[in-house]
Amino acid sequence: MAATPPTKQSLLHLYHSMLRTSQSFSSYNFRNYFVRRTKTMFREIQDETDPTKLTAFYNEKAKELAVLKRSAIVNQLYGGWRLVVEDQKPVRDRGDT
Description:
The protein has 97 residues and is mostly helical. The protein is built from three helices and no strands. The chain has one domain. 63% of the residues lie in helices and 0% in strands.
């Protein structure tokens, strides 16, 4: 029984979901690590044509996306100070509008 490979559209959707979730980390280091990692993983599978490998990749990354979402939520709950390398939001006083 041959496995039906995921469509290119479903792989792109998974890729964008993983990137979006990676961007939601409040920690600069985690955020940049997961963005780089996601881009690297999908770049490696880009030219793959074997349906079995594509299906296994898609299933594995779909599970990983669920873990990534939960991790991002926890990271947002316990987010710390912004680092110097991040864009700083201006500090506003009560009198500023």
